[in-house]
Amino acid sequence: MSVARDCDLPLFVMGDGSNMLFDSRGFRGIVLRIGPGLDALAFAGTRVTAGAGIWVPAFARQLALRGLAGLEHVVGIPGRLGGLVVMNGGSQRKGIGTHVRHVTVVTRDGESRTLAHADLGYSYRTSALQGSGAIVTDVVLELEPGDRGVIMREMIEILASRRRKFPKNLPNCGSTFLSNPAMYDKVGPPGQAIEAAGLKGVAIGGAQVSPLHANFIVNRGGATSDEVLALIALVRGTVQNRTGFAMDCEVRHLTESGEERPAHEFTDAGRFDRSLLDRIDRSDA
Hints:
The protein has helices at residues 2-6, 56-65, 81-87, 148-165, 181-187, 190-196, 225-243, 263-268; strands at 11-14, 20-22, 30-33, 41-44, 47-51, 68-69, 100-106, 112-116, 135-142, 144-145, 172-175, 203-204, 207-209, 216-219, 252-254, 260-262, 280-281. By secondary structure, it is an alpha+beta fold. The strands form 5 sheets. It has a 5-stranded antiparallel sheet, with helices on one face. It has a 5-stranded antiparallel sheet with strand order 11-14-13-12-17. The protein is globular, with a radius of gyration of 19 Å. The N and C termini lie far apart (46 Å).
């Protein structure tokens, strides 16, 4: 952090970047990766203190082994705990923020601070930590007592479902669009709405709406960030015209200069190569 300040370079903090779309032109700054060096784990009854660098699937399994329930839904998420806490990540329309009691962060000024749940501003797939510049180092969570066998069986079912539904063999940024509760109630989840719009399998260059699950955009070979953004713009606009709902992105885009926001904010502003929209490939749709 001090190097970034002294050299006047942008600093980007990440875990495994599983929901990130990096600019194909690169990033002119410093990447600070939170990983195994911050993976301590301590249990006190139903309260758990965990380092931000712990691998989420491994963390979920440790909870199951101790009969601690509530976070079964995170078992298949490929990322680090700190990133999950920052974005209120989860699956099955649940978020980890429900169980977060407080977090320890390091500010951009190098100050260590403890933030309580009320300070974190949790809502669906977002928190006050996003864009704050604070780096999460430790998390304290409160779980619920449960039956170890029941928890393990639920996790196995979740993993089996993910293997059936989600693309694993091609690079992707995870779920592209957020599940809007109002939209979900009227037209279903994003993948269903995208498929109903006839966009499953549609491609622009190397970027393709996954033929397996329409809420994933996969790199079928040589995709650029602009091609992914163009496909996001196409999908978002088409679904909005059909349903009236504008789907916000779960995928976040990092530009060459260090801007980092949900990908749809860049497409809405026209910050991608719009000529790519003339190269739509529907041969696999």
